[in-house]
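Q: Give me the 3D complex with zinc ion.
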Amino acid sequence: MNRSLSWLVLAALALAAPGAEAQTYRRTLVPGRPFCVLWNIRDFVYRLDAAGSLRTPGDTEFSALEASFSSWQALAGTCSDFTLTRGPDIQNPQVGYLRDSKDNQNVITFREADCNDVVPPEDPCIEADTCANEYACWDHGGATIGLTTTTFSFRTGYILDADIELNAAPNGRGFLFTTVDSPTCDAVLSSSCVATDLQNTATHEIGHVLGLDHVDVIGATMEPTAPPGETHKRIIDVGSAAGFCDAYPRGLPPIQCGESPDLGRRTQAVSQGPGLAPMGCGAAPGTLLPAAALLGLRLLRRRRERAGEGRAAAPRAPPA
Ligand SMILES: [Zn+2]
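A: Here is the predicted complex, encoded as structure tokens.
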């Protein structure tokens, strides 16, 4: 029996400076089970959507994504025999996992239209929850930057498939992904300043692909917020690094979390000063910054396979 987890990184706004040197991680638990999701392979292959993004200059989006994977690969080289290898780029990548299909690939794709804008209201894909793949559109809410869908064995926790979608819908529906290092964009977003840094976002999402969960640590790669202009998640923090290395030690089988969910997390010298942003969805009161700090984490179960048990399509709220 397989289930999917989908993680949301919600739009954010910056409250705090990075820099907490905390060694904290959380691994993603199988819902209701005392163990974690993890890969039982060491040769992970990912494939980039050949279409890339029309909103980033040239092929810079591919370079930024490669830089994100390279950071995790460099980490792996210090502690693990895990490899992250780019397979051939893929046309019309399909997010999710099809049972008994040979076409399941671990893909990264830009969704450059919002499903609300391109899917006719009576389209059966809404009920079937297949619009995102059919229309290559973003179907997860306008405040979300990126989403990783992981399908795994409910019995073992072993991951079968993990796919990253990036919300690049235009006209305020999504985010302008940028690939430059500086400066931070001011009121006018453009590709020549840092709006939503692609490498920053992808490094975080790849953490989910590898089985890491969010942590409430400012500055951590797996912190679930990403304010405009942020780039520090590009650098994998010591806690996230420990989470990866503890899960996939070189020369040894992958390490499960064990009988206690607490074994899936480790906290050392956590710095949680008063500047820590409150967790949860909603506006941050009192901020002078231009938008509310939102962050979130959502578990989605796969639509059930048998007829008559399909999950209702998610409500289509107008954009905030
Ligand atoms: Zn996340």
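A quick observation: The longest helix spans residues 60-79.
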